[in-house]
Amino acid sequence: MQEPSYLKLFESGELDDRIAKLYRMLGSCELCPRKCKVNRLEEKGKRGFCRSGKELMVSSYSPHFGEEEPLVGTGGSGTIFLTNCNLGCVYCQNYEISHLGRGSDKSEDQVAGMMLSLQERGCHNINFVTPTHFAPQLVRALKAAVGKGLKVPLVWNCGGYESCGVLGLLDGIVDIYMPDIKYGDDRLGEKYSGVLDYFTVAKEAVRAMHRQVRELKLDSKGIAYRGLLIRHLVLPNGISGSAEVLRFIAEEISANSYVNVMPQYRPAGMASQYKELDRHPTREELNRAVVIARGLGLVRGL
User: What CATH number does residue 39 fall under?
Assistant: First the structure.
Protein backbone atom coordinates (compact mmCIF):
# COMPACT_ATOMS: atom_id res chain seq x y z
CA MET A 1 0.00 0.00 0.00
CA GLN A 2 1.14 3.54 -0.74
CA GLU A 3 2.66 5.38 2.21
CA PRO A 4 0.69 8.33 3.61
CA SER A 5 1.59 11.51 1.76
CA TYR A 6 2.46 13.41 4.95
CA LEU A 7 5.59 11.30 5.47
CA LYS A 8 7.33 13.03 2.55
CA LEU A 9 6.50 16.48 3.93
CA PHE A 10 7.78 15.44 7.34
CA GLU A 11 11.06 14.14 5.93
CA SER A 12 11.64 17.22 3.75
CA GLY A 13 10.86 19.70 6.53
CA GLU A 14 7.97 21.16 4.53
CA LEU A 15 5.55 20.14 7.28
CA ASP A 16 7.14 22.74 9.58
CA ASP A 17 6.51 25.47 7.02
CA ARG A 18 2.86 24.43 6.65
CA ILE A 19 2.41 24.47 10.43
CA ALA A 20 3.88 27.97 10.67
CA LYS A 21 1.56 29.29 7.94
CA LEU A 22 -1.51 27.70 9.53
CA TYR A 23 -0.62 29.05 12.98
CA ARG A 24 -0.27 32.57 11.63
CA MET A 25 -3.94 32.36 10.66
CA LEU A 26 -4.90 31.98 14.31
CA GLY A 27 -3.78 35.55 14.98
CA SER A 28 -6.67 36.82 12.84
CA CYS A 29 -8.62 33.67 12.22
CA GLU A 30 -9.49 32.81 8.63
CA LEU A 31 -9.41 29.05 8.96
CA CYS A 32 -12.90 28.75 7.53
CA PRO A 33 -14.87 30.89 5.05
CA ARG A 34 -16.56 32.80 7.88
CA LYS A 35 -13.29 34.72 8.36
CA CYS A 36 -14.14 35.88 11.88
CA LYS A 37 -10.65 37.49 12.14
CA VAL A 38 -10.47 37.10 15.92
CA ASN A 39 -7.11 36.59 17.63
CA ARG A 40 -7.32 33.03 18.88
CA LEU A 41 -3.79 33.14 20.26
CA GLU A 42 -4.88 35.35 23.14
CA GLU A 43 -5.60 33.31 26.26
CA LYS A 44 -8.82 35.14 27.09
CA GLY A 45 -9.44 36.84 23.79
CA LYS A 46 -12.60 37.17 21.75
CA ARG A 47 -14.01 34.01 20.24
CA GLY A 48 -15.44 33.65 16.76
CA PHE A 49 -18.39 31.59 15.59
CA CYS A 50 -16.76 28.26 16.51
CA ARG A 51 -16.11 29.45 20.09
CA SER A 52 -12.63 27.94 19.95
CA GLY A 53 -9.31 29.34 21.10
CA LYS A 54 -5.69 28.21 20.90
CA GLU A 55 -6.13 24.86 22.67
CA LEU A 56 -7.44 21.77 20.96
CA MET A 57 -10.72 20.47 22.36
CA VAL A 58 -11.52 16.77 22.03
CA SER A 59 -14.78 15.05 22.88
CA SER A 60 -13.65 11.43 22.45
CA TYR A 61 -11.48 9.07 20.45
CA SER A 62 -11.87 5.39 19.62
CA PRO A 63 -11.93 2.81 16.83
CA HIS A 64 -15.19 3.44 14.99
CA PHE A 65 -17.01 0.69 13.10
CA GLY A 66 -19.96 2.77 11.88
CA GLU A 67 -18.09 4.65 9.16
CA GLU A 68 -18.04 3.72 5.47
CA GLU A 69 -16.82 0.19 4.73
CA PRO A 70 -13.57 1.25 2.97
CA LEU A 71 -12.54 3.15 6.11
CA VAL A 72 -13.56 0.51 8.64
CA GLY A 73 -12.12 -2.78 7.36
CA THR A 74 -11.42 -5.15 10.24
CA GLY A 75 -9.72 -2.72 12.64
CA GLY A 76 -12.06 0.24 12.45
CA SER A 77 -11.52 3.89 11.63
CA GLY A 78 -9.51 5.73 14.28
CA THR A 79 -11.87 8.60 15.01
CA ILE A 80 -10.97 11.68 17.04
CA PHE A 81 -14.06 13.82 17.64
CA LEU A 82 -13.16 17.51 17.88
CA THR A 83 -15.37 19.84 19.92
CA ASN A 84 -17.27 22.80 18.38
CA CYS A 85 -17.88 23.48 14.69
CA ASN A 86 -17.77 26.20 12.05
CA LEU A 87 -21.35 25.41 11.01
CA GLY A 88 -24.57 25.92 12.96
CA CYS A 89 -26.80 23.12 11.64
CA VAL A 90 -30.03 23.26 13.62
CA TYR A 91 -30.48 19.47 13.26
CA CYS A 92 -26.86 18.56 14.10
CA GLN A 93 -26.51 14.84 14.74
CA ASN A 94 -23.63 15.57 17.17
CA TYR A 95 -25.36 18.52 18.83
CA GLU A 96 -23.84 18.08 22.30
CA ILE A 97 -20.32 18.09 20.86
CA SER A 98 -20.60 20.63 18.08
CA HIS A 99 -23.07 23.12 19.61
CA LEU A 100 -22.86 22.64 23.37
CA GLY A 101 -19.08 22.21 23.43
CA ARG A 102 -18.88 18.83 25.15
CA GLY A 103 -15.18 18.00 25.39
CA SER A 104 -11.99 19.05 27.13
CA ASP A 105 -8.77 20.86 26.32
CA LYS A 106 -5.97 18.64 25.07
CA SER A 107 -2.39 19.46 24.20
CA GLU A 108 -1.04 18.63 20.78
CA ASP A 109 1.18 15.97 22.36
CA GLN A 110 -1.88 14.38 23.95
CA VAL A 111 -3.66 14.27 20.60
CA ALA A 112 -0.52 12.78 19.03
CA GLY A 113 -0.72 10.09 21.72
CA MET A 114 -4.33 9.39 20.76
CA MET A 115 -3.31 8.95 17.13
CA LEU A 116 -0.55 6.51 18.03
CA SER A 117 -2.86 4.60 20.37
CA LEU A 118 -5.46 4.19 17.62
CA GLN A 119 -2.79 2.95 15.20
CA GLU A 120 -1.54 0.47 17.80
CA ARG A 121 -5.09 -0.81 18.26
CA GLY A 122 -5.23 -1.74 14.59
CA CYS A 123 -7.17 1.19 13.11
CA HIS A 124 -6.69 1.60 9.37
CA ASN A 125 -6.60 5.41 9.47
CA ILE A 126 -6.79 8.47 11.70
CA ASN A 127 -10.15 10.15 11.19
CA PHE A 128 -10.41 13.77 12.35
CA VAL A 129 -14.13 14.51 12.83
CA THR A 130 -15.08 18.21 12.47
CA PRO A 131 -11.43 19.37 12.24
CA THR A 132 -11.69 22.63 10.27
CA HIS A 133 -11.36 25.10 13.14
CA PHE A 134 -8.38 23.24 14.63
CA ALA A 135 -6.33 22.72 11.46
CA PRO A 136 -3.05 24.29 12.78
CA GLN A 137 -3.11 22.38 16.07
CA LEU A 138 -3.97 19.10 14.38
CA VAL A 139 -1.15 19.37 11.85
CA ARG A 140 1.29 20.10 14.67
CA ALA A 141 -0.06 17.07 16.56
CA LEU A 142 0.39 15.04 13.38
CA LYS A 143 4.04 16.04 13.20
CA ALA A 144 4.59 14.87 16.79
CA ALA A 145 2.88 11.56 16.03
CA VAL A 146 4.84 10.99 12.83
CA GLY A 147 8.07 11.49 14.77
CA LYS A 148 7.00 8.59 16.96
CA GLY A 149 5.97 6.24 14.18
CA LEU A 150 2.53 7.19 12.83
CA LYS A 151 2.11 5.80 9.32
CA VAL A 152 -1.60 5.29 8.59
CA PRO A 153 -3.67 7.50 6.23
CA LEU A 154 -5.20 10.71 7.51
CA VAL A 155 -8.94 11.38 6.98
CA TRP A 156 -10.36 14.94 6.98
CA ASN A 157 -14.01 14.36 7.95
CA CYS A 158 -15.69 17.76 7.56
CA GLY A 159 -18.95 19.57 6.86
CA GLY A 160 -17.90 20.83 3.43
CA TYR A 161 -17.67 24.50 4.42
CA GLU A 162 -13.92 24.80 3.90
CA SER A 163 -11.44 27.50 2.92
CA CYS A 164 -9.59 26.70 -0.30
CA GLY A 165 -6.57 28.55 1.13
CA VAL A 166 -6.42 26.20 4.09
CA LEU A 167 -7.03 23.20 1.84
CA GLY A 168 -3.99 24.30 -0.16
CA LEU A 169 -1.90 24.08 3.01
CA LEU A 170 -3.30 20.61 3.67
CA ASP A 171 -2.26 19.38 0.22
CA GLY A 172 0.09 16.45 0.74
CA ILE A 173 -0.94 16.15 4.40
CA VAL A 174 -4.46 14.76 4.06
CA ASP A 175 -4.81 11.41 2.32
CA ILE A 176 -8.60 11.05 2.33
CA TYR A 177 -11.03 13.94 2.24
CA MET A 178 -14.54 13.10 3.48
CA PRO A 179 -16.78 16.17 3.15
CA ASP A 180 -20.53 16.24 3.53
CA ILE A 181 -22.38 18.25 0.90
CA LYS A 182 -25.46 19.23 2.86
CA TYR A 183 -27.56 21.34 0.49
CA GLY A 184 -27.95 22.11 -3.18
CA ASP A 185 -29.12 25.67 -2.56
CA ASP A 186 -27.39 28.51 -0.69
CA ARG A 187 -30.70 29.69 0.76
CA LEU A 188 -31.15 26.42 2.63
CA GLY A 189 -27.65 26.67 4.05
CA GLU A 190 -28.53 30.10 5.40
CA LYS A 191 -31.75 28.90 7.00
CA TYR A 192 -30.53 25.65 8.53
CA SER A 193 -26.75 26.05 8.99
CA GLY A 194 -26.29 29.78 9.42
CA VAL A 195 -24.08 30.48 6.39
CA LEU A 196 -25.04 32.60 3.38
CA ASP A 197 -23.01 30.75 0.74
CA TYR A 198 -22.86 27.08 1.78
CA PHE A 199 -23.34 25.35 -1.60
CA THR A 200 -21.21 27.90 -3.48
CA VAL A 201 -18.32 27.41 -1.04
CA ALA A 202 -18.74 23.63 -0.72
CA LYS A 203 -18.54 23.18 -4.49
CA GLU A 204 -15.23 25.06 -4.69
CA ALA A 205 -13.88 23.17 -1.67
CA VAL A 206 -14.80 19.75 -3.07
CA ARG A 207 -13.25 20.68 -6.41
CA ALA A 208 -10.02 21.55 -4.57
CA MET A 209 -10.11 18.30 -2.60
CA HIS A 210 -10.60 16.28 -5.77
CA ARG A 211 -7.70 18.01 -7.51
CA GLN A 212 -5.46 16.96 -4.63
CA VAL A 213 -6.45 13.32 -4.08
CA ARG A 214 -8.73 12.33 -7.01
CA GLU A 215 -11.18 9.40 -6.74
CA LEU A 216 -11.12 7.03 -3.76
CA LYS A 217 -8.45 4.34 -4.08
CA LEU A 218 -8.61 0.98 -2.29
CA ASP A 219 -5.91 -1.56 -1.53
CA SER A 220 -6.18 -5.29 -2.25
CA LYS A 221 -8.24 -5.75 0.93
CA GLY A 222 -10.73 -3.03 0.03
CA ILE A 223 -9.31 -0.48 2.49
CA ALA A 224 -9.15 3.15 1.36
CA TYR A 225 -5.72 4.76 1.38
CA ARG A 226 -6.23 7.91 -0.71
CA GLY A 227 -8.94 9.90 -2.43
CA LEU A 228 -12.27 11.66 -2.05
CA LEU A 229 -15.30 10.18 -0.31
CA ILE A 230 -18.41 12.40 -0.38
CA ARG A 231 -21.32 12.16 2.04
CA HIS A 232 -24.82 13.48 1.44
CA LEU A 233 -27.32 13.29 4.28
CA VAL A 234 -30.89 12.98 3.02
CA LEU A 235 -33.13 15.41 4.91
CA PRO A 236 -36.94 15.22 4.91
CA ASN A 237 -39.10 17.27 2.53
CA GLY A 238 -36.34 17.63 -0.05
CA ILE A 239 -34.43 20.11 2.10
CA SER A 240 -31.04 18.67 1.16
CA GLY A 241 -31.57 19.30 -2.57
CA SER A 242 -30.24 15.89 -3.51
CA ALA A 243 -30.75 16.28 -7.26
CA GLU A 244 -28.61 19.44 -7.39
CA VAL A 245 -25.90 17.99 -5.12
CA LEU A 246 -25.65 14.70 -6.97
CA ARG A 247 -25.68 16.38 -10.38
CA PHE A 248 -22.79 18.59 -9.30
CA ILE A 249 -20.78 15.56 -8.18
CA ALA A 250 -21.45 13.56 -11.33
CA GLU A 251 -20.92 16.37 -13.82
CA GLU A 252 -18.29 18.56 -12.19
CA ILE A 253 -16.28 16.18 -10.01
CA SER A 254 -16.46 12.63 -11.39
CA ALA A 255 -19.11 9.99 -12.04
CA ASN A 256 -16.60 7.60 -10.45
CA SER A 257 -16.82 9.45 -7.13
CA TYR A 258 -17.51 7.41 -4.02
CA VAL A 259 -20.77 8.87 -2.68
CA ASN A 260 -22.55 7.78 0.48
CA VAL A 261 -26.21 8.82 0.28
CA MET A 262 -26.86 8.66 4.01
CA PRO A 263 -30.25 7.55 5.38
CA GLN A 264 -29.60 8.04 9.10
CA TYR A 265 -31.09 11.48 9.66
CA ARG A 266 -33.08 11.82 12.86
CA PRO A 267 -34.52 14.98 14.43
CA ALA A 268 -31.79 16.17 16.80
CA GLY A 269 -30.60 19.43 18.29
CA MET A 270 -33.16 22.13 17.53
CA ALA A 271 -34.90 20.22 14.72
CA SER A 272 -38.14 20.02 16.72
CA GLN A 273 -38.48 23.79 16.26
CA TYR A 274 -38.71 23.31 12.48
CA LYS A 275 -41.79 21.34 11.45
CA GLU A 276 -40.24 20.39 8.11
CA LEU A 277 -37.26 18.79 9.89
CA ASP A 278 -39.11 17.14 12.75
CA ARG A 279 -39.32 13.64 11.29
CA HIS A 280 -37.20 10.94 9.69
CA PRO A 281 -37.01 10.84 5.88
CA THR A 282 -39.50 8.43 4.37
CA ARG A 283 -38.45 5.33 2.45
CA GLU A 284 -39.67 7.05 -0.70
CA GLU A 285 -37.50 10.11 -0.07
CA LEU A 286 -34.43 7.97 0.49
CA ASN A 287 -35.11 5.82 -2.55
CA ARG A 288 -35.61 8.92 -4.69
CA ALA A 289 -32.11 10.15 -3.83
CA VAL A 290 -30.59 6.76 -4.63
CA VAL A 291 -32.44 6.57 -7.96
CA ILE A 292 -31.15 10.03 -8.87
CA ALA A 293 -27.59 9.00 -8.02
CA ARG A 294 -27.81 5.81 -10.08
CA GLY A 295 -29.34 7.72 -13.00
CA LEU A 296 -26.30 10.01 -12.98
CA GLY A 297 -23.91 7.03 -12.95
CA LEU A 298 -22.93 7.47 -9.29
CA VAL A 299 -22.83 3.87 -8.11
CA ARG A 300 -19.68 3.73 -5.93
CA GLY A 301 -20.77 3.81 -2.31
CA LEU A 302 -24.45 3.12 -2.92
Answer: 3.20.20.70
